[in-house]
Amino acid sequence: MYNSESKSTIKLPEPSLRRLPWYLAYIKLLQTKGEEYVSSTQIAKEIGVDSSKIAKDLSFINISGKTRVGYEINSLVAVLEEFLGFTSMHKAFIFGVGSLGAALMQDSGLSQYGLEVVAGFDVKPELAGTFINHIPVYPLSQFTQKQKELGVQIGILTVPIDKAQSATEEMIAGGIKAIWNFTPYRIRVPKHIVIQNTSIYAHLAVMFNRLNNIKKFS
Known about the structure:
- The protein has 218 residues and is α/β, with parallel strands linked by helices.
- Helix content is 42%, strand content 17%.
């Protein structure tokens, strides 16, 4: 059962919000197998999150299961996808068409989660006029024009570290309202700009550190 309370009125803690896509990914696997119901205990065993925490996370978005049966899978998938914004398509620009930026442009899976990359921008003149996965690449000088044409408000930042802050400021000046930052640099933005930092290098550092600790005690 789902209460259609507006998403904007639900104050979901960020750790809970980060876990919801984990639940969705597993539940969609069950859906492809023709399963009809899933319990919080079953989800907990698969993804390693305490079942009481899962039940609490789902309660924030007013989903309730049936006693001794669990959650109805089709409804749960629909509710989670709608709540997470995956059912609405959001257009995005990529700034910095290097190896990482190009890889993200090749990732067709992003569109399954509501993100459509519609153009890439780079300062390298040889990239202008090229296409990656049928997505056009423009010189950075055309960004403002394309933003006005397409109304894109999301920018994915994959430029070199020394260009991160200046590119951020240019993005914001051109109309970008939300930035997905893939650089290790902690960019500075005004309070009204949404920022999400996803540094693969930071995660590498954590992994290496934990691996080293394991080696010390093995």
